[in-house]
């Protein structure tokens, strides 16, 4: 099975590089230097030249604040170019797995969002990702779109790595308590992708369409941070962990509005795969144990810069 992976240096991309190393699978990884999503021809060129049997797109403009300042760039990378990639895949009958976000919703729900709930993004990033979803759906029937949320990994540049960095510098860390979502470990998303590819290989088909793909237990950013610090403290990475002060979103103004409630109901995917994604606390434990196993001074958080 020849697999082509875009966005190979991102959180999900890196995790996919590990899980997609399987016997009989030939993985080609493509980064921004080889295919910049502001130039759709570069992206579609890879599909035309390498004729993979499966394509995974983990590339995206993910800077939520930056998208407010560069809306056209976000729209091109997350919207138009996804449409071009999907059209190229469709023309060669190549299935495509693409990733999207809980930020397509406005965050006003009182229960976890299902796939058929109305979308209404409240920031530019969310709107750009929604555009990509719609173009994908319009041009390529053989697609799986996985909406995920609050992605974290051991690599820098996500909420967990940022909190651990701050923990090493401060005695108090202020975190919003009024944003709720489902943290999701990049490795667990990659496992889902590997399962889907395997299933396609076995059945030469998949139940195509849109799936929510998050860990099952929603929490606030405040609760999430407390858990990260407790786990890091238990592994000896923090001594002691800083105090976590709960604040509200209006005390932490940002350029882009964030949905207050972004929990995703991933039961459709769980039904397909026979089990839900693991609880996010397993991913936090894995990260802290990996960091602790390295010989670094406890006060210097290693991931993390
Ligand atoms: N991170 C989250 O919390 C979150 C939440 C919900 C959904 N998602 C979605 O999940 C997917 C994976 O996210 P992630 O957390 O793995 O993102 P990430 O770590 O920010 O990685 C994004 C990847 O996209 C690449 N990229 C950015 N601009 C590009 C361009 N113009 N051309 C080609 N490649 C470009 C980046 O390349 P460089 O390394 O060169 O920058 C990087 O490899 C995305 O679709 C994202 O929208 C993420």
Summarize this structure briefly.
This protein has helices spanning 11-19, 40-50, 64-69, 71-91, 124-139, 159-169, 186-203, 221-234, 267-273, 280-293, and strands at residues 2-6, 26-30, 54-57, 96-101, 143-148, 151-152, 172-176, 180-181, 184-185, 209-212, 219-220, 243-247. It is α/β, with parallel strands linked by helices. The protein has a domain at 2-153 and 184-217 and 262-279: NAD(P)-binding Rossmann-like Domain (Rossmann fold), CATH 3.40.50.
Relevant terms:
305 residues; alpha/beta; Rossmann fold; two-stranded parallel sheet; 10 helices; 12 strands; disordered C terminus; binds NADP nicotinamide-adenine-dinucleotide phosphate
Please give a structural write-up.
- By secondary structure, the chain is of the alpha/beta class.
- It has a domain at 2-153 and 184-217 and 262-279: NAD(P)-binding Rossmann-like Domain (Rossmann fold, 3-Layer(aba) Sandwich).
- 42% of the residues lie in helices and 16% in strands.
- The protein is built from ten helices and twelve strands.
- A six-stranded parallel sheet has the order 2-1-3-4-5-10, sandwiched between helices. The protein has a two-stranded parallel sheet with strand order 6-9.
- The chain binds NADP nicotinamide-adenine-dinucleotide phosphate.
- NADP nicotinamide-adenine-dinucleotide phosphate is lined by residues 7, 9-13, 31-32, 36-38, 58-62, 77, 99, 101, 129, 148-151.
């Amino acid at each position: 099975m020849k697999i082509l992976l875009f966005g190979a240096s991102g959180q999900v991309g890196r995790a996919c590089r590990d899980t997609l190393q399987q016997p009989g699978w030939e993985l080609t990884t493509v980064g921004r230097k080889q295919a910049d999503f502001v130039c759709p021809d570069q992206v579609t060129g890879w599909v035309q030249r390498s004729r993979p049997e499966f394509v995974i797109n983990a590339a995206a403009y993910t800077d939520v604040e930056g998208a407010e300042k560069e809306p056209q760039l976000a729209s091109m990378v997350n919207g138009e170019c996804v449409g071009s990639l999907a059209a190229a895949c469709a023309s060669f009958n190549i299935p495509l797995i693409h990733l999207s976000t809980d930020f397509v919703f406005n965050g006003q729900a009182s229960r976890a969002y299902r796939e058929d709930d109305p979308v209404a993004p409240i920031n530019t990033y969310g709107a750009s990702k929604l555009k990509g979803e719609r173009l994908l759906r319009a041009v390529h029937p053989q697609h799986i779109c996985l909406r995920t949320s609050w992605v974290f990994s051991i690599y820098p540049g996500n909420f967990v790595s940022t909190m651990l960095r701050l923990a090493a510098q401060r005695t108090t860390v202020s975190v919003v308590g009024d944003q709720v979502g489902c943290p999701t470990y990049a490795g667990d998303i990659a496992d889902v992708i590997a399962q889907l590819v395997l299933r396609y290989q076995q059945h030469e088909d998949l139940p195509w369409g849109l799936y929510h793909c998050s860990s099952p237990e929603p929490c606030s950013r405040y609760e999430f941070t407390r858990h990260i610090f407790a786990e890091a403290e238990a592994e000896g990475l923090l001594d002691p962990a800083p105090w976590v002060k709960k604040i509200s979103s209006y005390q932490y103004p940002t350029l882009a509005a964030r949905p207050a409630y972004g929990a995703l109901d991933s039961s459709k995917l769980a039904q397909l795969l026979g089990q839900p994604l693991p609880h996010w606390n397993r991913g936090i434990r894995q990260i802290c144990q990996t960091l602790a196993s390295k010989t670094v001074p406890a006060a210097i958080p290693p991931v993390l810069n």
